[in-house]
Write a structure and sequence with these properties.
2 domains; mainly beta; 252 residues; 55% strand; eight-stranded antiparallel barrel; 16 strands; Lipocalin
Length: 252
């Protein structure tokens, strides 16, 4: 009888280890592929640098489809939408559409989903973009800041005829939306205020209202690592002479 009981115990232990129907290691789980995040794109025309363009923006992926809005420079349009379908590492049905500028895009994304590249073809462009109809070339894309600008930044803002004031920004990011606080030191009237705004690629804009102290608009760019902000400030109210520019560095 003891032998029968021992055999039963061994069998049960074997079932616990093997799963009695298949054991799947937690290390086998896969993270869903996604291009969601901030990207910078460069399109290099076969007609030369004067026809090339670059764009920055935030992509959102739902299922296998991604899309986003880009701010575009170096082309006959200043903004556009980009979209496509991700099938494994292949990008299909890709399109970049700006005003009068329809472009088809194809290519691949690397396995880390932090960069991509391929070829493009300009379709029937019209209006001010008519001259680039039929153009083709290559493109590359790089994820810039996956989670957006966040953290504590500090640095001087220099006005034209004033001593520099110190600006500290404590920011958090949520899907391209920025919010937080701005604290001013050595300002004649600005003190502390809540700020909110948006980030598209490496471009950002924040607005804050300090009531009777005045309001401020901060616009500029961030570096690829999200560690430096290069900003212009437009101050309204009695301290408008403190409008200026400066660079803020992330401390934490």
């Amino acid at each position: 009888m003891k032998s029968i009981i021992l055999i039963a115990v061994v069998i049960c232990l074997g079932c616990s280890i093997s799963g009695c129907g298949g054991y799947t290691s937690p290390n086998k789980s896969q993270t869903a592929a996604s291009m969601t995040g901030n990207w910078q794109f460069t399109f290099t025309s076969s007609k030369g640098a004067s026809m090339s363009l670059s764009g920055t923006g935030t992509l959102t992926q739902t299922g296998s489809n991604f899309s986003g809005t880009l701010s575009i420079t170096g082309a006959c349009t200043t903004s556009g939408t980009i979209s496509g379908t991700l099938s494994g590492l292949s990008i299909t049905n890709g399109r970049l559409t700006g005003t009068n500028l329809p472009i088809t895009v194809s290519g691949t994304v690397v396995s880390s989903y932090n960069s991509a590249g391929g070829s493009y073809q300009v379709m029937m462009a019209s209006g001010v973009c008519a001259s680039v109809s039929g153009d083709s070339g290559t493109w590359t894309g790089t994820r810039t800041i996956g989670s957006g600008v966040s953290g504590y930044f500090i640095g001087p803002m220099q006005a034209a005829d004033r001593l520099p004031m110190q600006l500290a920004l404590n920011l958090k990011s949520d899907g391209g939306q920025l919010s937080g606080t701005a604290t001013f030191t050595n300002s004649a009237c600005l003190h502390s205020m809540n700020v909110a705004g948006t980030q598209s690629g490496m471009n950002l804009e924040l607005q804050g209202d300090g009531g009777t102290d005045g309001s401020v608009v901060l616009s500029g760019t961030t570096d690829k690592e999200g560690k430096t902000l290069t900003l212009n400030s437009m101050v309204s109210g009695i301290c408008q002479a403190e409008s200026g520019a400066g660079t803020l560095t992330k401390l934490r």
